[in-house]
Amino acid sequence: MDEIRGTAVGTAPVPLSVLDLVTVGVGRTAADALRTSVEIARLAESRGYHRHWVAEHHSMPGVASSSPAVILAHLAAHTERIRLGSGGVMLPNHAPLVIAEQFGTLEALAPGRIDLGLGRAPGTDGPTAAALRRTDRLNEGADDFPQQLAELTRFLDDDFPDGHPYSRIHAVPGPVQGSSARPPIWLLGSSGFSARLAGVLGLPFAFAHHFSAQNTIPALDLYRESFRPSAVLAEPYALIGVSALASDDEKEARRQVLTGALSMVRLRTGRPGLIPTPEEAEAYEFSPLEREFVDSWLNNVIYGTPDAVRTGLDDLQKRTGADELMLTGNAHGGLARLRSYELIADAYELPTVVVPS
User: Fold this and answer.
1) 288: exposed, middle or buried (C-beta count within 10 Å: 0-12, 13-18, 19+)?
2) Is 234 in a helix, a strand, or coil?
């Protein structure tokens, strides 16, 4: 399907895309972060990136992406061609009918441009997940993921069989109103569960290499081994999320990615906050254990000059065989992220496309 398989442009080995966490830095607001998200989407569209996804996170001061469907509607109003999607919606947090209606609405707003990426993790901590789901029986949501997925697919296709309790329920906008199109479903994962399920169902698969690099190749191998051709895909199609940040100066690139590393240290130790400034990150005194975590974290971030980032991305694509690279640039400020996507586009000689204002 053309809406799934992108086309590499310029000298890039595979299509390049954007994963936007809508990060909020110290001294900035959620409104600033959302404006930056629009700017990044418009830049990505103008430079030949294939898609722009946003991810669902909750109760994290450093991100403003708790409502992907709302953000995607906003991005759709400010772009013309780029694919937009969720990377992803955490299905156990929501009733499948609600997701079908939200993404049916998005498909009606931006026909042929919407992707529905689904994850089974909560996208937050346990207490917040319990508040979202109105239950503390959190494992049930994850364990029921295949059933929730099947129900969501039925709602999107409006094809519950006669006699099913939901056979007379219609997700709207949707097929009952004459629509023949719906967003393609992607499964997201950071381990083997969704990799195998995506393969068995013949769906495209997106792997979170940016925070689970040690599992990337095993998960992609499992996906490809499990893959069964479907009406959606004849062959496997896998993208990987990659932390990548380019700067005109190598030292500045390290300063910027260190802000993301410190933010992760704080998140992993129960102290989440706004994304720190480069100055704060440089001045922070890491404990030996924190320094070990930071070094490990930065080993999986591709950063530096544009040429260095291009080389790192090329090597990663060759090692993994990924069909698409989805880049997330974690930094304190929007200007650094925008500049990074521009520099990477230049490094791969991506074309400049005139986008209506």
Assistant:
1) exposed
2) coil
Distance in angstroms (rounded) separating the CA atoms of residues 215 and 178: 42
The rounded distance, in Å, linking the Cα atoms of 14 and 8 is 5
Residue type, 343: L
Which tokens in the block code for residue 150? 């099947």
* 15-51 b/e (C-beta count within 10 Å ≥ 16 → b): bbbbbbbbbbbbebeeeebbebbbbbbbbbbbbbbbb
Residue type, 332: H
**Type of residue at 5:** R
3 state SS of 284? coil
**Cβ of 243: how many Cβ atoms within 10 Å?**
22
Nearest C-alpha neighbor of 1 from the set 160, 204, 193 = 204
For the chain, 357 residues long, give each residue's pLDDT as a single digit of tens. Answer: 567 999 999 999 999 999 999 999 999 999 999 999 999 999 999 999 999 999 998 888 999 999 999 999 999 999 999 999 999 899 999 999 999 999 999 999 999 999 999 999 765 567 767 777 655 655 555 578 999 999 999 999 999 999 999 999 999 999 999 887 899 999 999 989 999 999 999 999 999 999 899 999 999 999 999 999 999 999 999 999 999 999 999 999 999 999 999 999 999 898 999 999 999 999 999 999 999 999 999 999 999 999 999 999 999 999 999 999 999 998 998 999 999 999 999 999 999 986 655
